[in-house]
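Q&A log
Question type: sequence-to-structure
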Amino acid sequence: MGDPTVVVGVDIGTTSSKAVAFDTDGRQLASHSIGYPLEEPHPGWAEQDPDLIYQAVLGVIRAVVDELGEPVAGLSFSTAMHSLIGLDADGNPLTPSITWADSRASAQAERLRAAPSGLALHRRTGTPVHPMAPLPKLVWFAEQEPKLHERVSHWVGIKDLVLRRLAEALVTDHSVASATGLMDIHRLAWDTEALRVAGITEEQLPQLVPTTHVLPGLTADAAEATGLPVNTPLVVGAGDGPLANLGLGAVRPGVVACSIGTSGAMRVMVERPGVDPLGGVFCYALTEDRWVVGGAINNGGIVLQWAHDALAPELGEDAEEELLGLAAQAPVGSGGLIMLPYLLSERAPHWSALPRGAYIGLTHGHGRAHLVRAALEGVCQQLALVLASVRAAGNEVREVRASGGFARSPLWRQILADALGMPVRFPAGHEGSGFGAALLGMQALGLISSVEVAADLVRIDETVHPDPAAAATYAALLPLFSELYDALVPTFASLRRLAPSLPPEPPPTAPPR
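Response status: OK
Response body:
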C-alpha cells in the first residue's frame, strides 16, 4: 500500500461543522456533520460557544476517520469568516465566538465608514467597513467593554482557536485575515492604521501564514480524540467563501460562483487583489495568486421563508413547492411591484446595517402571487447589483456557476438567469467549501499540482439560459431597484431614530445563517 491520498476537509460553519473525506479524483468517501446553536442574547447579537464548536470539530473528524477505516494524508480547514473571540493569556475564551451575523457594532461601523479614511480602509484591507467584520466589533469592545478589551491577550477567529487546540499553534491564514478589516491585502501584513483604530497591537493577533501552510502534527489529546496519528499534517486552510469557489470549480478568472442559501453571495476569482472605486465589493485571499472579489447578501432563502410565514402560513411547514407555484402565477416583473428584500438589513453592495425591506408600487390589483414573486425577484435583483459591482472592479464575467438550496426550484433558477441576463450553470452536488478545503489541502501536501484541477473535477448538471423578454424586463427594472435604496436611506435613518419610542419590533422568524 502506497502513501495515503485521502484528505479530510473540515468546514467550521455558523450552524454546524462538517468533515468530508475526498480522494484526488474528487470522489467523496465519507462525511459527517454536527450542529450547534446560534445564541441571540440581545437584539442584533449573534454568538456561539467556542467550546461546543471545538467539540463538534473533534466529533466530525472522529466520525469520518472511523467510517473511512484507512489512513488520511492530512486535514485541511474551511471556516465561516468574520468571527471574533477574545482569549486570555492561557488561551481560554473571555468572550463567546461573535459571528458575522452580529450587528452590535452598527453605530461604530457607520461612523468609521463615513469618516474620510473609511473607503481607504476598505480598499487597503479588502473588507467593507460593516458590523459583520472584526474591526468595528473591536471598536465596540473598546468603547462598550473597555475592561474586558484590556484583559484580552489575543483576538482570534474560530478556526484560529480550533487550530491552537489541535496543534498548539497560534496562526491565522491570509484568507481569514483578509476578512477581518485588519490586514493590508497588498502587503499581506497587519495594517497599522486599522490596528490603531481597533485599539490593539500586532502582538495581540495570530501569526499570519499562507492558506497552504502545514502544521506538522496534533497534540496527544487531539490525536486521541480524533483517532488520528500524532504526526497527521494539518493544512491551515482558508475562509469558506473563497473555498466555495474552489468547490464549484469556479477557479479561473471570469467564472463567477453564486450561492443562495439562507443568505447569498457572488464571487469571482482574480489574480491580483483590488476592490472597485466605490467600495461595492470585498476582496479576500485564497492563495498568493488567487483572490476572490464579490459581495454577500444577508437576504436569500430567508426571504422565501418570511413570505411563507407572513403571506401563506396556512400552506404548512413544508410548503416551499406550493409557495413557488403561487409565485409562478404572477408575471415577470410582478406587475410593476418591486420588493427591496432587506429583512435582515443588507451587505453588498451598499454595506450598511440601516436598510429595511419594502414593497414599492403596490396597487389594488396585486395579490399574494405578486407579493411572493416580487420577493424572489428582489433577491435576484440584489445579486444583479453585486454582479455589476464585480464588473465595476474591472473583472470580466464570462460564466456564472450557482449552488445552494434555491437551486431545487426551476422557477428560482430561471429568475436568476433572467435577472443576471446570462446563462447560469449548475454543478453536480459537491460539498462546496469542504471540497474546496480538501483540494487546497491536496495542493499543500503535494498530492495535486494546483487547485486549478477543480475546474475539471466539477461536472455541470444543467445550464439555464435567460429568456430574452424576461431579461429585458429585469434590465429595465434594475436601475429603479438600485435608486430605491438611495431614495429610502433618509426614511431608514428616521425609522432607526424613532425605534426607541415605538413598540418593539417582532423577532426574526429564524436567525441568519
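Response note: The longest helix spans residues 468-498.
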